[in-house]
Design a protein that fits this description.
This protein is of the alpha/beta class and 381 residues long. The protein has helices spanning 18-31, 62-69, 73-85, 88-98, 122-126, 129-141, 158-175, 192-199, 201-214, 236-246, 248-251, 267-314, 328-344, 350-362, 366-380; strands at residues 6-12, 37-40, 54-55, 113-117, 144-151, 179-184, 254-258. The relative contact order is 0.10.
Length: 381
């Protein structure tokens, strides 16, 4: 295995065997003397068959969140993730520390694998702001790979297979991270059929026609020739035909492995796919992430400059005020102040000169005061 640290984020629908898969790859890495760093991001899980190094349940009480905010199960999970995301910088700093050699403990090997377990409610994690922040934070520091866990026995029909592919496609383009399709439970159902459908368009069309003819279209137990979408008539077969053509390009960007979380079959192939995805991440995805980060930084700086310019304008402050932009009345007042200051020998202190002028105007002679009294007495008389 390469010496580069990698973050593996396990995403899968409820019941796909995601947590059991986490246990299997955790045990596999321990068996290869490459102890992983395990993170649990599912606040609603009661028990996990592995010991996480970072557990969201240690920071957030899921039931208390539901009670305090008056939320349902999904809202409680989402709010718990939001609360945990406020500490994502601390998590990343801890991971960066653990993936680097410790000079004080040279005998301790740095962590090479970070595996992350996510909630079974995919939409709560993938399409939420907190999920995006967590993934972006991890991808900024480490090569990050999405492992999409699929329940192979439940994907045996063409319609459920296509549903899973569309879900995987949406996750790929939402996260913009390299993805591995993990067809789990290979001990129950061999995923060879799925690999064939992804690589051979004609094989998928043949399977689709067989389901239509036998009345098992959509995984139902209908009689041959039955009516309705699951009986083979309607728009569904046409829709699946069209989508299989559309997703042909999507399949080329995926790695596909069959794994049995119970027996451990295929785990070695999974980590080989992870190594290839690290190269793909550094080649194709990391430049895009750096570009997005640079764009965000530039937008923040532009917004900051706009706010500063607005503030300076509101305060009527300019770095280098020009003469023609100044107030004409203010210029005249300044000139008068300068003249008064020169007359009073007060230099350039306009305020003091103005005060002296007013003071001089109020100091009239005794002769002037006596003349005023004379005029007043004349008017009275």
């Amino acid at each position: 295995m390469a010496d580069r640290p990698v973050c593996i984020v396990c995403i899968g629908m409820a019941g796909s065997g995601k947590t059991t898969f986490m246990q299997r790859i955790n045990a596999y890495l321990h068996g290869t003397s490459s102890r992983p760093y395990v993170i649990n991001l599912d606040p609603a899980v009661r028990t996990v068959p592995f010991t996480p190094n970072i557990d969201i349940r240690d920071s957030v009480n899921y039931k208390e969140v539901m009670k305090q905010y008056k939320l349902g199960p999904n809202g409680g999970i989402l709010t718990s993730l939001n609360l945990f995301t406020t500490k994502v910088d601390q998590v990343v700093k801890l991971l960066e520390k653990r993936t680097k050699p410790d000079p004080q403990k040279p005998e301790t090997k740095p962590i090479k694998h970070i595996i992350v377990d996510t909630p079974g409610q995919i939409e709560v994690f993938v399409w939420s702001a907190s999920g995006a922040i967590l993934l972006d934070s991890l991808a900024t520091s480490f090569p990050t790979v999405i492992a999409y866990i699929i329940d192979t026995p439940r994907t045996a029909s063409t319609s459920t297979f296509m549903s899973n592919m569309l879900y995987a496609c949406s996750i790929l383009y939402k996260t913009k991270l390299p993805m591995i399709l993990v067809f789990n439970k290979s001990d129950v159902k061999d995923p060879a059929f799925a690999k064939e459908w992804m690589t051979d368009f004609d094989a998928f069309q043949t399977a689709l026609r067989q389901e239509e003819e036998t009345g098992s279209f959509g995984g139902g137990d209908h009689v041959p020739g039955g009516s309705g979408p699951q009986g083979g008539s309607g728009y569904m077969s046409s829709l699946l035909n069209s989508m299989s053509l559309v997703l042909d390009e999507f399949y080329s960007h995926l790695s596909v492995v069959g794994v049995s979380s119970m027996t451990g079959e295929g785990v070695n192939e999974f980590f080989e796919a992870v190594e290839s995805k690290i190269d793909e991440f550094e080649r194709d995805y990391q430049p895009e992430l750096e570009k997005r980060q640079a764009d965000r930084t530039k937008n923040k700086e532009d917004q900051r400059q706009k706010e500063i310019s607005k503030l300076m304008k509101d305060m009527s402050v300019d770095d280098k005020p020009e003469k023609d932009q100044s107030d004409p009345l203010s210029d005249m007042d300044d000139e008068d102040d300068d003249m008064d200051d020169q007359e009073d020998g007060q230099g350039t202190d306009g305020l003091e000169g103005r005060f002296q002028r007013v003071l001089k105007g109020s100091q009239r002679s005794a002769q002037d005061l006596s003349f005023e009294r004379y005029l007043n007495s004349a008017k009275i008389g």
